[in-house]
Input
Amino acid sequence: MSMGFNTIAGAINQAIAEEMRRDETVVLIGEDVASGIFGVTAGLIEEFGKERICDTPISENAIVGCAVGAAMTGMRPIVEIMFQDFLTCCMDPIVNQAAKMNYMSGGAFSVPMVVRSPGGAGIAAGPQHSQTFASWFMGVPGLKVVSPSTPADAKGLLKSAIRDNNPVIFLENKLLYFEGGELPDGPNITIPLGQADVKREGTDVTVVAVSGMVPRAVRIADELSDEGISIEVIDPRTLYPLDTKTILASVSKTGRLVTAEEGVLTCGLGAEIAALVSEQACDCLDGPIVRVGTPHVSYAYNQAMEWATIPDEQDILVAVKKAMGCE
Amino acid sequence: MKQDFKLTKKKLLGKVPALKLLKRMLLIRRLEETLGKLFADSEVKGFVHLSIGQEAVPVGICANLGDDDYITSTHRGHGHLIGKGGDPKRTMAELFGKIEGYCKGRGGSMHVADFELGVLGANGIVGAGTLLAVGSGFSAKYLKNDRVTACFFGDGASNQGMFHEAANLAAVWRLPVIFVCENNGWAEFSPQSSHQAIKNVADRAAAYGMPGVTIDGDDIEAVHAAAADVVDWVRDGRGPVLLECMTHRWQGHYAGDPQPYRDQDELAAVTQHCPIERFKKMLIKRKTINSDEFEAVATEVELEINEAVEFGRQGTDPDPRDFMSYIYAN
Ligand SMILES: Cc1ncc(C[n+]2csc(CCOP(=O)(O)OP(=O)(O)O)c2C)c(N)n1
Output
């Protein structure tokens, strides 16, 4: 397999282009997608034209509602919602229509649609442009939820999401967009949904990290390996369906678990994984499960305050030490 | 008995009110020009949307409102706040993320709000202010406090379901709301023709059973006069009105936007609509003011904005560890 190098933004752009070449029922619908917010979809208009790269009015409900109807009638729309915060403006078509359609119709109608949306704090965008809503969607039966942390994962998973016959919420991270990484060449390289990836192997503590928290966890793993502490970093990549097998196997090996997400801790990914491990691997645990995430609060505009709120490497480090019983 | 809404003739303003309007417009202009620079120098962060060129709309509308009346605003909200009488110092302090700022550094540009002046906040969610306006209209009617709400929103926002639901509800409940559309021809990188099949947003008013009028939003006297008529009508309990003000966005969608999508000739031509220049020239020609009087106001504004910048810069940083406060009301 030959390797290239690209950013996550570039990888997403490639995934969309390749899938559009492969399947002419794939279209991209969203606000200013022809220009491309954060540059992610920039340039696609040149190859695919206005029929397939569809700029819309500012009408999130209509954008997603239209995509659901189109998906029910033979298309594979990719929708972009500019910020995760705006997903609140189109919750009915996502939750009551797309997610329930296959079930309600007894399998008559499926909704092969992807809703892509960037989240995450750290750019002083204030309380209404900074949130991460991954765990909300994990609780909606019928949706699949994906949140990649590397260019290769972003590309492989987005391609699978587009080919999937279910609605997939594909959650990106603004700060990760321009992180570079290896990217395998070839239009048919996909990564199956529902498969976690072990980003670092280790034996002492399992850190399940997602999205922007993955590179932070990896850096802490590197740092602690100098101290002789061996961290296993697992990126679930797909949050629903969650690869519980990989997580449980890792915890059985290490006996210690830290979870790291950017979203609010309340009812979050960490809470879900902690419940999973205490139900199914309680006797493997040698210490408390420790969760890292945003406390029960929004993100301030003031940058020092914003960064004090965002979970960072230091928080992961403290959590790992706590999980090891050395506070 | 149902009576048709009609705009009365423009009244020519005398020296004192004219200079007052000029000053408010200049305050917005200088404040935002300064913000643009501060943003370029990375002293101010985040998303900053400038309303340079659009000053006549909030100033002309708000001159007809009392301190008790409400406004709802947008992501492009500094002008609305200052137009309503907001304090440049507290605005600047907010943009510097300081405790002395309107939102104590929590909100930033997109959320400036002033409880005392009935400014229900700039808003990061396009269209959301239209619904809040229905709410302040509802409370005013219920509490019988005689307050009206001016709801500012863009041509782009008029495509949100939120706007349509707000317009309908305000109309059926005959709420004291003025829907002020600032039609600057752009929604982010999209020209109006690409996002709606009509030219005038005011055409939509008829569909909800409210009057709708379109005026030159860069002519402060036109805005001022129309607003006077509309405020009277609305305060009189005759239900909402949609007032569309045609204006121009001089700058990018956000500070730092290089605007590759914009036609250079169109862009070069926008300044000829300058509401401040137009008004100034008109007033001097009519001999309502002389250029010395204009310069005196301009100098005053210059000083006030310089002071505001220093006030903001020297403000107190919130303790970052205090991030949990204000999430719930006491
Ligand atoms: C619900 C929602 N969708 C999209 C955006 C992104 N956005 C911010 S401003 C804007 C354009 C608004 O256009 P218009 O209402 O005409 O106001 P203008 O920017 O011209 O003042 C868009 C799409 C947003 N902030 N909120």
